[in-house]
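Students often ask why inverse folding is considered easier than folding. One informal answer: many sequences map to the same fold, so there is more than one right answer. In these notes we will look at a single instance of the problem. The structure comes first.
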């Protein structure tokens, strides 16, 4: 890339969008400093994501209860509840 081209591009877009740091590097020219900032919504989403990562995906107490009832032969499903759930799922897919 030619330096003259860089200077023309710099004149077109201007250098007001870049921030120069107060310190100069070893060549005597001011260096550019990048900054990143996150919105409060982004920070809140990260906190929520971290909180959800701590919660287990499976509720072991419910699973162990159902397993023990199935093994004992005492687990019963109401036919009315089963029909209701089937109809709800059918209505959602339709």
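Output (designed amino acids):
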């Amino acid at each position: 890339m030619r330096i003259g081209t860089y200077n023309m591009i710099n004149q077109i877009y201007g250098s007001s969008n870049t921030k120069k740091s107060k310190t100069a590097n070893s060549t005597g020219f001011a260096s550019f400093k990048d900054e990143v900032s996150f919105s409060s919504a982004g920070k809140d989403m990260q906190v929520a994501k971290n909180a959800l990562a701590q919660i287990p995906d499976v509720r072991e107490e419910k699973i162990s209860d159902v397993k023990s009832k199935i093994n004992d032969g005492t687990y019963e499903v109401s036919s009315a509840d089963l029909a209701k759930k089937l109809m709800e799922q059918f209505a959602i897919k339709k």
